[in-house]
Amino acid sequence: MAKKFQISRRKFLTGASLGLSGAVLSGCDAFDSGLGVGDGLRSFLENANDLTWRAQRLLAGRDSLAREYTQADIRQPMRPNGVTAPDDAHYHELLANDFSDWRLKVTGMVEKPLLLSLNDLQTMPSRTQITRHDCVEGWSVIAKWTGVPLSLVLDRAVVKPQARYVVFHCLDTIDRSLSGNIKYYGSIDLIDARHPQTILAYGLNDKPLPVENGAPLRARVERQLGYKMPKYLSRIEVTDDFTGMGGGRGGYWEDNGYDWYAGI
Amino acid sequence: MDTAVSARTSEQDNIAIERPLVYRQSAWTRLTHWLWAAALFFLLLSGLNIFNARPQLYIGQESGFGYDNTILQIGAINTPNGPRGYTDIFGHRFDTTGVLGWSGPKGYERPRAFPSWATIPSYYDLGTARVVHFFFAWVLSATLLAWLLASLFDGHIRRDLAPRLGDLRRLPRDIADHARLKFHHGRNYNTLQKLSYGVVLFVLLPLMILTGLAMSPSMDTVLPFLTEIFAGRQTARTIHFGIMVLLVLFFAVHMLMVLAAGPVNELRSIITGWYRTDSPESSNSSKGSA
Questions:
Q1: What PROSITE patterns does its record include (chain A) (predicted)?
Q2: What is the CA radius of gyration of chain B?
Q3: Which alpha helices (H) appear in B21-89, and where do they start and end?
Q4: Do A48 and B219 touch (CB under 8 A)?
Q5: Residue B289 belongs to a domain
Q6: pLDDT in tens, A80-136
Q7: ipTM of the complex
Q8: What is the spatial distance between Cα A134 and Cα A131, in angstroms, rounded to a whole number?
Q9: Is residue B141 assigned to a domain?
Q10: Does the CB of A58 have a partner CB in chain B at under 8 Å?
Q11: Is residue B85 one of the residues assigned to a domain?
């Protein structure tokens, strides 16, 4: 009896080690199926995103501040990324007369919907901050951003109590699908929207925001990665639910499998 | 030792007495070992996919585009003989076609830093790789914490891992033994085992977690000193990559040692806990046997 058990165990161990090395050698496409957006394995693994988000919220709270740098830390121009030259006809019309016809719409769950010109925004109290932009790809660049705190715009529109999110709608087409052009969009919750460093930026490194960085207006959400800071803003929608928009995951990149909370 | 021994033939009895099985690895050690093995496997391969999004490493807070602070770059260039993959390390260029920079099945080669077989998913997909990476980052961190607590309470760290004076005295002989692939099979870890496991568990894995957190813009608002300790976010990213290389080297040596020391016996001990030792006269194993 004992002898039999000994042999089968030895066989098991050898088999297990061969099996393991076989799995490694067969390449990593073994894990590809199941990892698409909506697949079971993917959805299971995405539960960790929720944990990650809650842990960061717990530790950082509402108002922990991103580090601000000095003028001496600005050593290079801000690197543009994503869409850097929108080819939408409407955008070109707005650009042609220096965005004087451009308006930022504030809609949704607000008492007073707004229609703000660039001049309206620039005459509101401004905030200037030198911060580090961290891209999801892994790179970072330090730059100086000037804009109006989003909280001031929200206060002027008077947010309804049931609202939870701010959705940024953009002018630039980032993708094309069978059902038409897909414009960039993204969302943050009201905690990040009201964060003191969350601004609608119209200035970069002491100059008007250039086209490649999102002219005339882009979001800065300093505790998250770059894809949470949409460029070429046209409308801010206050809502309690974003699942009816786009792919339902709260943003263009989120619909393509990126996590909604991009704090890491 | 146990009833199984008495049931054996006399020949096996002799083996069992001369080379007794001892209970070497506790359930905690075995469970956490395999959780780490799985977590590190997925972290490595998803991490290489994430790296492919920006196959460059920098020193400092930011990535130099208007100036040069790049210390490593993997890329592809066109040459008269077709596309080639290259790896730049501290300004020295190496042709790494087929593995780094330019790789794929014949006729389907593509520019990609780490090759398809070394990444999860096999295709470039940063969003998905991040889902996999952060899931297993939690597994790794939770396992490390559980192991630390269990090993403090059951004495594993003090009894098995902490190097003693005698260990350090034996170090030169231990190095010589390892170099000749001559192993003593005892209840206790040898000096190099204690040192290498200790470095992995108390230095490399914690540093991996901390440099990972130092890259997070959200955690940077809570632990700003962390990014400073690592001399900037991009340096933290570079260290994160460097520790990955050290962990892969540890894994390679670990596998080599397991094969050289007797894979069946070594695997049995990390699966069942039981380890066959050398005869008592030739080792110091008796004191720890169960």
A1: PROKAR_LIPOPROTEIN (PS51257), TAT (PS51318)
A2: 23
A3: 27-53
A4: no
A5: no
A6: 999 999 999 999 999 999 999 999 999 999 999 999 999 999 999 999 999 999 999
A7: 0.88
A8: 9
A9: no
A10: no
A11: yes
